[in-house]
Amino acid sequence: MGLVLKNGRLLNLETGELQATDILIAGDRIEAVAEQIEASGHEAIDLQGKAILPGFLDMHVHLRQPGFEAKETIETGTAAAARGGFTTVACMPNTRPVIDSPELIGYIYETTAKEGSCTVLPYGAITKGELGEELTDIAALKAAGAIGITDDGVGVQSSSMMREAMRIAASLDLPVVIHSEDEDLAKDGCMNEGVVSKRLGLPGIPGLAESVMIARDILLAEETGAHLHVCHISDAWSVDLVRYAKSRGLKVTAEVTPHHLLLTEEIIDRTDAQDANMKVNPPIRTEKDRQACLRGLLDGTIDMVATDHAPHTEEEKKRPFQTAPFGFVGLEIAFPLLYTELVETGQIALHELVKKFTINPANVFKIDRGVIAVGNVADLTIVDLEAERTVTVEEFKTKGRNTPFLGKKIKGWSVLTINQGRITYRGN
Ligand SMILES: [Zn+2]
């Protein structure tokens, strides 16, 4: 007995058409895709005309386990992913201990098999403990199942160490995923350096702290032949640099978060006592930077959307702005935010946005997901494009409450998520 999804509308990622479709799932695979599939003998769910999309992939998530289970666990983080329509997430290694050994890569896979609500693909650290002092055994990390290497949370400051990491990663065909931050330029900044930080008297992080490191790493990638993937791009110069790298035919790819596409540094000005729920790294920058990120997403310079889902406890986020930790949660609201703000306003077509959540990350990281077709793994998300709901923490599956989008009314929520043939979220 399989599962039949009846009366859905499958989004054609080439033409953007929504076509009346039934889907039969057997085991973890898509068995049939047709206008009409006989439901007898199978469990059936009536989709009532809702949109059928490939399950989303998010290549930048902090699941916080092991070590920071008060913020999030693999169980709660992947439940949040499922609610957001995600079927695959890549988790960052800045846990405690840092995921810098084959054993810890194995721990992520084993814990996900027991407690996870989506596929979890771990990154391994570039340097031991993310301390920037000594390289990890990158070949062993890959053999254990790491899908890339990164010291996300901090930038690799040493150029010679990054060069050596890229040489090794290139020989292994493993992506080098960079959190670009020059610590000497960023110093103890807590928001974007600019007119708002000056007005508020807060130390700023210049956009340059990001873009100079991207420039360095593009040069190192060209020399070594490594695949460089730029995390959470936030600055106009950074977008230009990635565009330049692509024009040279380099293996350079990039992601952008919903918050860098939708917000400007003015959010900090507007809130009382500079609410730390507005604090994130890289910081929210200017309207010019936001426009550059959006243009980069539209013209293909930026390949994909990633959330940088970064939960913290309420207690941590209640600290004063300067000492509270950086980060927003994002998994549960990423797609509806961008659907509402970019698709409904006519800035991007639905199928073009969906590609940034599905086939693009799958292709960049060579993951066998992101396409609905017979024989493929049954990873699907069913989205209601009509119903509007308010973002409330009461409905969150994540332990995090830290988002600047609370109270926002948005459309495009997932109502059913299926990962490897298994229902991982069902809403209304
Ligand atoms: Zn980062």
From TrEMBL:
Binds 2 Zn(2+) ions per subunit. Zn(2+) 2 binds at residues 152, 179, 232. Its EC number is 3.5.2.3. Keywords: Hydrolase, Metal-binding, Pyrimidine biosynthesis, Zinc. Zn(2+) 1 binds at residues 60, 62, 152, 308. The keyword Hydrolase applies. One of its GO terms (molecular function) is dihydroorotase activity. It catalyses: (S)-dihydroorotate + H2O = N-carbamoyl-L-aspartate + H(+). The active site is at residue 308. Residues 49-234 form the Dihydroorotase catalytic domain. Belongs to the metallo-dependent hydrolases superfamily. DHOase family. Class I DHOase subfamily. Catalyzes the reversible cyclization of carbamoyl aspartate to dihydroorotate. HAMAP family: PyrC_classI_B. This is Dihydroorotase. The lineage of its organism: Bacteria, Bacillati, Bacillota, Bacilli, Bacillales.
